[in-house]
Amino acid sequence: MQRRQFVQTLGAGSAVAGLGLMSGCATSAGRGAKVVVVGGGYGGATAAKYVRLFSDHNIEVTLVEPNAAFVSCPISNMVLGGHKTMADITVPYDNLSKRHGVKVVRDTVASIDATKRTVKLASGGELPYDRLILSPGIDFMWDTLPGMAKAGAADKVLHAWKAGPQTVALRRQLEALPDGGVYALSIPLAPYRCPPGPYERACMVASYFKKAKPKSKVVIFDANDDITSKKGLFMKAWDEHYKGLIEYRPKHKVVDVDAATNTLKFEFNDDFKAGVLNVIPTQRAGEIAVKTGLATANARWCEVDFLTFEAKAAKNIHVLGDAIQIAPAMPKSGHMANQHGKTCAAAVVSLLQGKEPPSLPLYANTCYSFVTATDVVHVASVHKYDAAQKTMLAVPGSGGLSSAASALEGEYAMAWARNIWADSLA
Amino acid sequence: MVTTTNKWLAAGVLCLAAAGAQAQVNQIKVWAAACANCHGTDGRAAAGAVSLAGQSKNDLVQKLQDFKTGKRPATIMHQLAKGYTDEQLADIAGYFAAQKK
Ligand SMILES: Cc1cc2nc3c(=O)[nH]c(=O)nc-3n(C[C@H](O)[C@H](O)[C@H](O)COP(=O)(O)OP(=O)(O)OC[C@H]3O[C@@H](n4cnc5c(N)ncnc54)[C@H](O)[C@@H]3O)c2cc1C
After folding, report:
1. Shortest alpha-carbon distance between residue A109 and chain B (Å)
2. Which of B28, B79, B95 should one mutate to test binding to chain A, selecting the residue with the greatest count of A CBs within 10 A?
3. How far is CA A283 from CA A106, A189, A279, A425, in A?
4. In what order do the strands lie in the sheet with A246-249?
5. How far apart are CA A154 and CA A165, in angstroms?
6. Which residues of A touch B27 (CB under 8 A)?
7. A399 vs B18: CB contact, 8 Å cut-off?
8. Which end of chain A is more exposed for a tag (fewer CB within 10 A), N or C?
9. Beta strand A131-134 with A69-71: parallel, antiparallel or unpaired?
10. By three-state DSSP, how is residue A62 classified?
11. Do B46 and A31 touch (CB under 8 A)?
12. pTM to 2 decimals?
């Protein structure tokens, strides 16, 4: 967007806003309306960009995000395997402001006042909004693992389930592990962020061991009864590429961790000690959503109206991405969060223009997993709004899995990453 | 009294003008946006994916139909195309055909 146009928009906005809101009609343009987006991940960055696009740049958008740049969880398992670098999965936020006129504020939202319609920033400032879009991702339910509260435990036993410093630290632990050492990965009960993510991670760590320390082992402790995603495809990959390297143990629910001795404690099974522990804890909606009272499903996930992503618990606050109580068969994925972002943006723009939001949401999900440094498998689905049940349902007959892992899908997976990063952030 | 009426009238005119200039967010545009994760915003793809922007509508409809029926081999598009009605595929194709390359 050109600078001149941006200045004009702002000028027109402030002049019309007062009158518009009073008369309830000039808002048909949405001019001068203020949208604040919390969280610059897959959901938030997409929503911020698309509110600008769908409003022809008439609605002001401020994105609040503490991180200096976006670091992608998708492809981050490749960093653990030594096949990609952190630079490969890091994307700047600049283009959201330069190309789309989104105001990016590097800060954390400390609290939300839903009555006054303001958010308070950790640094002290306050931002007013007409509509708030919240995409805070997940936070961990550390209270389910009491030992993790001990001094130093969280620095030693890593999750690396938010890409960033922990991704780098876990890679260092794997590099420091002697040949013959054991890496133990624990998976929480579903739902959690990215159903196939842990199994992909096991493949990537095993691919590194196969090359660099062939006597080492990956042991997967899954709290679930079975592999939760792409089961046949993962089992085939483990058999073909990592025989003797990966061991899978279902029905192992971790209830505590002793970081001092690197020991996992289970609900029903014997303790297990390993060289590197990688514990993916039980998750819930990002803290800001929970403490604002939006997590109405078991105090864990935020229930929303799937036409608009408005929270059931609060007017004018929209929640999307991993933080929501999902619809049936809807995964917690970056691809999904990006799709939510567009549906939500279209609804927010319509509502601020005083119009009915589009009423037939329809979108797809694809999720690629690397099983070797080059070969990839996918799962795909199409989801459609069901007016009777007021939820999104998979369209019968659509979707499916890869017939087999392939290098062609490996190329598509990287193309997917480049495209979704650009679609969300550039 | 008169001033008030005028104010409301003025607001009404502003209203109409604004509404005229601002097309409603349309459903087809949002459906098409759902393809952008893989095919780029407005169908202008980053390296490695097929750009849909500016392709002929007929060609796009034909390709999508061929994916849907399984005539055209694919890793993933045959599974996704089956999730859309023929009309929806035609609407989406029309949207991408109208975008600048
Ligand atoms: C190892 C791994 C692999 C994955 N692979 C894939 C994959 O291949 N494909 C796929 O589709 N998905 C994948 N995912 C899942 C994907 O990363 C998530 O589903 C996605 O990030 C969810 O987007 P979100 O916007 O909800 O949250 P996030 O992307 O986590 O974004 C949340 C943002 O909110 C910010 N934030 C939180 N609280 C505040 C606050 N109070 N104030 C301001 N900002 C705040 C955070 O800093 C963060 O940037 C993977 C995940 C993992 C862990």
Report:
1. 28
2. B79
3. 25, 9, 12, 26
4. A246-249, A217-222, A182-187, A276-279
5. 13
6. 358-360
7. no
8. N
9. unpaired
10. strand
11. no
12. 0.92
pLDDT tens digits for B24-36?
789 999 999 999 9
What is the mean pLDDT of each successive set of 10 residues along chain A, which is 426 residues long? 35 35 48 96 98 97 98 98 98 97 98 98 97 98 98 98 98 98 98 97 98 98 96 97 98 98 96 98 98 97 98 98 97 98 98 96 97 98 97 97 97 97 98
Interface touch A415/B48, C-beta < 8 Å: yes
CA distances from residue A45 to A65, A131, A404, B26, B72 in whole angstroms, order as listed: 9, 16, 33, 21, 35
In what helix (H) or strand (E) does residue A246 lie, and over which residues does it extend?
strand A246-249
User: Looking at ligand 1, which atom is closest to the CA of residue A333?
Assistant: 19
Which residue matches tokens 């109208």? B98
Please give the residue of chain B at the shortest CA–CA distance from A50: B33
Q: What is the DSSP letter of B12?
A: H
**C-alpha A336, offset from chain centre:** 9
Q: Give me the residue from A28, A355, A422 closest to B46, CB to CB.
A: A422
Is A331 a pocket residue for ligand 1 (Cβ < 6 Å)? no
Cα–Cα distance measured from residue A222 to residue A354, given in angstroms and rounded to the nearest whole number? 48
A158 vs A155: CA distance, rounded Å: 7
CB contact under 8 A, B41 and A423: yes
